[in-house]
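From the pipeline queue, job 12 of 40. The input is one protein chain; the requested action is below.

Action: predict structure.
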Amino acid sequence: MSESSPGASAGSSRTNNRMVADPEDISRMLRRLAHQVVENVKDVTNIVIIGIPTRGVPIAERLAKNIRDIEKISIPVGSLDVTLFRDDLQMRPSKALEQTRLPAGGIDGKTVILVDDVLFSGRTIRAALDAMNEYGRPAVVQLAVLVDRGHRELPIRPDYVGKNLPTSLNEKVSVQISEIDSVDQIVIQSTTEQL
């Protein structure tokens, strides 16, 4: 899928969008992630799944549902806002705080599966680890991401990956989730200069 701005003229830029995953692909990725979690975690009854807003939260909820379908047990799900723990607060436009909502049993001694849509530099995950320290001490923290696009700036590695998607720095990976965007898809957006 390709889009360009109407009336593109000399010296303008053109945005190309390429869909790399459709709703079926995303469903398949989440089922595979759930099976990997079940295989790797010794005691699935001790799992808590925490999504990073915005799109990490519905992805976390879907992951928990897939695990419930496999294991026939309910997995607690929460959300963790990392805004105030980011190291680039001064460089970004201010943004409204999201809700942090932890399951009733908390996270102490639990296997926490932290969930985000895209893993890029690793800075959001570092902020999430700092934020989590405010709420308790999990036994284990693992990371599940729908997309790993590379370009890490910190030594952070996901435990579970839906799709490895090598990208260049001038590309943007857009994960769209139906609960927020009314569609499930993953799109790579690239901008090219036109002469």
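Job complete. The domain at 22-160 is CATH 3.40.50.2020 (Rossmann fold).
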